[in-house]
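Narrative summary of target 7.
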Amino acid sequence: MTALVMPPLPAPPSPPPRTPFPVIAVIAPAIGAVAILLITGSVFVLVFAALSPLIAIATALDARRTARRHLRDEAARFDRDCTAWLARVPELHALERARADAAHPPLPERLRSRDPEGDPAAPIRIGVAPAPSAIAPERPAVLDDGPAARRLAELTAAAATHPALPVLVPAGPIRIVGRGAVVDSIARLVALHPACVVERVASASSLPSPALPSVAPVELVVETPTSARLRLPDGRETLIRPEAATRREHDALVRRRAPAEAALPDSLPWAALASATERTGAAPGPIGVDADGVVELDLLGEAPHALVGGTTGSGKSELLRTVALAWAASGPPAERSILLVDFKGGSAFAELSALPHVVGLLTDLDAASAERALRSLRAEIRRREGALLARGARDIADLPVGALARLLILVDEYAVLVESFPELQALVADLAARGRSLGIHLLLCTQRPGGVVRDAVAANCGIRLAFRMASASDASGLLPVAPPPDGSPAGRAVLAASGRLRTIHVATIAVDDIAAVGARWRSATPASRPWLPPLPARVSRHEALELDPESDSQSDSQSDSGSEVESDSAAGSGAARRDAPARDPWAPDPRGDAALASSVRPQLLLGAVDDPDRQRRVRGEWAPHRDGALLVVGARGSGAADALAVIAESASASGCDAVVLPDSPADVLGVLGELRDELDGAAPRSTERDAPGSARVLDRTAPRPLIVIVPEIDALVAEAGERALDLLDAIDAVDRRLRRRGGSLAASCSSVLRSRSGLVGRFDSVLLLRAASPDDHRAAGGAPGDYDAVAPSGRGRWRGRAIQLLAPESRSLAARSPRIPVWEPSLDGPAAVVSARPAVAAERLRRAGVHVATDPMAIAEPDAIARTDAVGAPRVAVADAESWQSAWSALALARREGAIVLADASESDARAVLGARASIPLRDESAVDEIIVVDSRGARRARWPALVTGRRASGPGDEA
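Modeled conformation, tokenized:
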């Protein structure tokens, strides 16, 4: 225990030390000068004798400077010590007051703990007044009159008198002089002492009551609400600040001292209280009974929120059920709605969900739905604010009946709720502060309110209920009295409401009670939910088009409309320019890329987006001008392929061209090269006739935005192997041209972690579906809490919000094939065919009617061809790469005057023939008739039908 002892008073400033006159320092230079004169005989040394007065003067000046510094340091030290000493005075005074209050507690403390004034022999505390303090120090020794002495006297005076110590008077008759509510409160406080008799006198001139003894009583003359003059029987008079007791405090202490109340029932059916609901206007109304009768809970009065504490099995959950049913019975669903929040499984509220008043049941079993609903509550606050503002009302009570339903939020296990969602603390505090005017009422239950419910929330919960608790200290922050003791039946609680403290027993409800209330409002319109239900597992295009667009999409739509108007006006004046030459639609715009890109802004519908923060669903749209290139990330079965089908359908519906790339790296490179030429406005590279089934060139008469779709780009890049960088560079080149035309690139990827490094960084936006793993989800940019391993197909995240993709009309994507021309050997030059199996290739060509030689030098000797009876036929020779390297002259002739044909040769064979630095297109190895032709125009893919014709004619034994 800290001792009530002040430290010693600060020592006053000490005087500076006295410095003696430096006699030796003055005489020593003169004696030294005379001695040197006698030794040297020089009279000039007498100059040293002049140092004596200089040393004396310097020594005196230095002594004065040291004295002034000493005085300054001592003054500063004294001031610091006084300040620290004086700061200690309030601390010890507060400790002294605390000990005095502990010995003789004020009335609020007596209500919370012990009541010493219940003893008739105990003195009565009537107020506080300045009094001598026990911490007063000994007076300092007599000092000369000066600042230090006056300062020490001030310190002593400050510590000697306590500003407010309890004033105790002996129990007995007390006369109180004065009138008014303050005097009534003081009289109530005095009357609480069992040995005090109060005499009320209106003024000092009035005569005392003859019923009082003849001994002069204690007299208290009340002058102001905070000032009274106390006269004791011995004639002493003291000015005090009186203490008082409110009527509620008086009644509470009287009830506390009263004998035990009438016994409450151990169980009470709610049906017995149902009739009381009809005769009262309170909501929710009767919830139980106390010693005086039915107890009503009125959340529409001065206290719109309630705070409940109690251990497991004490009756908290049953109270919530009773309040919910009473609330539903007090009004129709259009006026009373209920939100049930149970973070211990939801079993307590399962039966109540059938009531038409219940708008939702949130449990910890579905954390995603719980978080979504709690976010929607913020939107509900904004909606209610808007409804009040639209009608010019300040409170929900000012609105017409049924215009805005009141919402009762019942939370069981509030501690678990805020532990699961820490950000909810601020929302609950906001609801507690503004709930009255918005018509939102809270009833929060937890086992230990202390430390869980913040002060901002507890301060607005005017109704408090304490059930049986683990210890009395758990109820200290909830009620000023102890909770029901251990062994109390379930449902027994202490209720603090409307300035009263009383012990009640809460009624319990039955299944028949819920059915009866539900049947009563069966024909009424159910309460509207404060949020939309979760996204469905399937969304049609028609349903998505009925939704509102995103906010930033509205301006885009306006821009598109403006573009259409401009196009129409331009078409109207087109007659004046009919003679002008037609412009290539894919040629670069003379105004620059920015002008062209800004004039065409398609928006491709993806699905329905969940927007709980605004209590709505909106259209999820991919706007290439805003979102850039799109990457759809999703594991197998997540709907990534369907997402690309939806994009292709939406592109067609939005007036865009869509090109789906094939799944072969060779075909992809071929199609990308064609697209690059078409977007640049160049003519097709090949002049040979196209093979049957090849894709046609884009319609260049109607320039429309182009969407290029790349299915499974990660698998495509992995299959490309060493040519992966060439493939990515080709994709980037086409993407740059697409952006200038108002289009973009859309690709799918099954796994980000397994894909080539840097693949995701090439895309501006990510549509994240169900990923293969949580790590893959985070690698794609998803938040850890958004990962859902059981999400349905098409469920994902788009621009930070949940989206359900459209159900595609067709799940198959028709890929565009590259234009691979048909090649036939020319009569103008030799053809050197490089094959890994030259004998098989030669046999196929012969069966197809092509005259070939197996000697590479045959193409350099025209006579050799003539000897084979193939006059007029092209000079074709088939050999492997090694043979062609040996016949270098024939190979050089073919490169110079004819063509080199790579049939089934590998890349190493091709580089052996053409050189290590040769750039060779990829070919589809599964296509027997596909070749690489290298001539004066470069290397290109082609088809040689003779290879397929000869294979079919040869039969299955050809591969032997």
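The first strand starts at residue 124 and ends at 132.
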